[in-house]
Amino acid sequence: MIFRIPSSQQSASRYVSPFSIRPFKLFYSDSNPPLNNDVDTVYRIVSSSSSSKHLTQSLKSSGIFLSNGLIDKVLKRVRFSHGNPLQAFEFFQYTGNRKGFYHSAFSLDTMLYVLGRGRRFNKIWEVLIDIKRKDQSLITTRTMQVVLARIAKVCSVRETVESFWRFKKLVSEFDISCFNALLRTLCQEKSMKDARNVYHSLKHDFRPNLQTFNILLSGWKSSEEAEGFFEEMREMGVKPDVVSYNCLVDVYCKGREMDKAYRVVEKMRDEELWPDVITYTSIIGGLGLIGQPDKARDVLKEMKEYGCYPDVAAYNAAIRNYTIAKRLGDAFSLMDEMGRKDLTPNATTYNLFFRVFYWSNDLRSSYSLYQRMIYSGCLPNTQSCMFLIRLFRKHERVEMALQLWNDMVEKGFGSYDLVSDVLFDLLCDMGKLVEAEKCFFEMIEKGHRPSYVSFRRIKVLMELANKHEAIQNLKEKMSGFGSSTQLSGDGEKHTETSDPNSLNVTRVSAN
């Protein structure tokens, strides 16, 4: 059942759920952006610098004015091209140490993201302590979430919570918004069980508010657990809003409890909280789960009749229903309809098809769709790349795999770490040493360490080709990541030095 939305409440836009806040995106801008060629020049200087002294001299000799806008763009490029975190850190420190200069919030959060992705956690605290002395207002809950998300990806819940408490000495107000940032991080990077346990252990230190409950409600998979938190919310006198009810609708739809979902929608209407595009998207997904993709498509039409217009996520939900049902003709029809409605398909849209083509071993359709994706200007994400590279590996299509890799290097998408292992397996199996060596060095230049499995495979090929100088070059490049490779007898083993920046999140004092 669909309900009419009063004109005062109608909106074609999608708000962001407190749980599904997308991984750190950059929303700041500069009113006088520098010329693109200046950004290119500075980026090349940063990415090719061999030392802090070399970086400083090159930037000074370039004569380019390093404005906030230019720095924002350079760091953004480092982030999306998976650049070397230490080179970016040197650039950030040099520009920030100029007299009278203050970094923007954009630059700070981007720098922290890059360092976190490179597991340079000591550098993160170094940056934060320095920023606190200069301009504490730049350290926001968004900053907290950037840092905690990177820590939570590789560290334990305990270490994540310890890092959270360190922010008490860094932020101007350590309040419920900070606690909510921690819970959101745990929901996204750990498990709902972890988030629930932390919530119960710390809720007496921070009085939960509406956003707290919405974050927790958004993550539950079972209706019983969600209903329990909904009841606790009411007992504390916190009134549910549209987000709260949408969380409950979503749980019911994912649990195939469509009758309960519709009853919640009825209750929303009774309380004059009108269903929005997220409500309908959940219903579309739920109808697909119970095998009613055509009825779900009808919801797209009904939405528009009641003043709530579908967005990309709503169309993706409807397309997913048809791909699950193996009705690709209907799925592509909806994708074409998106274009007519001025909605641009995203990587998630394409992945719905890539998944079907991968499991049906359809190489031709996968590569054709990839070409269409690139031509349309939609960059693949890591999931897209993995569907493709595994299929290329299976069919031993070196040229296709190299095209994907070259696009990744040129356009800055996908995970080098994950894709490279499959790519090097393919190249080594096919005896493509020149290509493997080229890709190996490209990965290192981007600041990513190839796996030791890949290193050993390429090294064996080099030994067979008597390329001893190239082997030494590879070892030197790998040692730049704080590791050493040793030969022992007729076999090989490697040992890694302890990198104090890798996982240590508690050594540097925030005082």
Q: Over all CA atoms, what is the radius of gyration?
A: 25 Å
Mean pLDDT: 85
Percent of residues in beta strands? Answer: under 5%
The main sheet comes to:
2 strands, antiparallel
Distance between the termini: 57 Å
Q: What's the order of the H and E elements?
A: HHHHHHHHHHHHHHHHHHHHHHHHHHEE
Annotation, overall tally of beta strands: 2
**How much helix, percentage-wise, in residues?**
55-70%
Protein name: Pentatricopeptide repeat-containing protein
Region (Disordered): 482-511
Biased composition (Polar residues): 498-511
Keywords: Repeat
Task: Please explain how this structure is put together.
This protein is mainly alpha-helical and 511 residues long. Among the domains are: 350-404; 415-496. The protein is 65% helix and 2% strand. It is built from 26 helices and 2 strands. Strands 1-2 form a two-stranded antiparallel ribbon. A hairpin with a 2-residue loop joins strand 1 and strand 2 (491-496). Helix 19 runs antiparallel to helix 20.
